[in-house]
Amino acid sequence: MRCLKILSGCCAILVAMPGGASAADAADVAAPLRTLRAVGNDGSNSEAAAAAWDALSQQPASQLPVMLRALDDAGPIAANWIRGAIDAVAAREIEQPGGLPIAELEAIVVDRTHQPRARRIAFEWLTRADTTAADRLVPNMLDDPGLEFRRDAVARILSSAEKIPADNPRDQRLALYRQALNGARDEDQIKTIAERLAGLGQTVDLAQHFGFLRDWQVIGPFDNADRQGFAAVFPPEEKIDLKATYAGKDPNRMVQWTELRSREEYGKVDLNPLYDNAKQAVAYAWTEFRSSSAQDLELRLSCKNAWKVWLNGELLFEREEYHRGTQFDQYQLKAHMRPGSNEILVKVCQNEETQPWTVEWQFQLRVCDALGTAVYSQPVTGDRNE
Fold this sequence. Notes:
CATH topology of the largest domain: Jelly Rolls
Number of strands: 14
CATH architecture of the largest domain: Sandwich
Number of helices: 13
């Protein structure tokens, strides 16, 4: 704790300041933080940012907790400025007598009310200043709201499982892998865990684990000549009637809804087998998600084709781009689910290109929370159109 000397008449009064900070320090840090937090995501108010960053980066180590807490509700660009100043202060002060305020940094790390980015920065500097901190903190982070912390905790469990001798009872490894699976949210770690469990005779249904939607009603093909189908409004966009038939890409051939259940490991919905590898075509996929309550979730989509996604008749997002690369959780769409039935409609367009790498006409879609934890639809009973 640092003391502030205040002169009052002929007497000097010592006032204790929390965290080793002086009143002058607090004043010095508040102004530049206000300036940096005012920097908009569009770059507005950035003219004064350089001077504010310079002032902030000269602060003592005692002000690091204040700077870290300022990240909680800072915008992305403002956070970058503040992060740079934090790193400058920490890099300089860690080499000085007294070093970094370890207790205060640890308090921020363990306080889950702070934003994960602030806690992670505090953790990175804490573990450089205190080499015992990771062993003390990481084992308690398997359910952490910060994905990086979860990843660290899962990695430690996997390492522990790998160190168990092969001739030991398999139950020890099974228990650790199951524990890791419950905490993991990153695809690569989950795949590794699934492989280890398979080696011990237990199968993980990855499509179920991730929350991929596998049961769909699909209809097509409609026309996408000259790529006009992406903007065109075909009947499924106006009304979902699973018993209806419509004129399709071939005006002399009616199309109707067909049940399609994906049996792919990651819930891939492949349209080619149904529609004979059609080109210049549009198809729709519809499903119902029954939510246990009103809740804000995410629809996470992977798709190489042009697509649109609607939730309860509202267009969530669209992307008119063909045959780009795809990856797990490629697009993350915010989705407010109402209690009970929620209708999800996906439009997937195929263009005219014929090279082998343009053949794929498919998508994957899962429902999860902001951390990537699968959220499952409640059981459906009865026929929707009865």
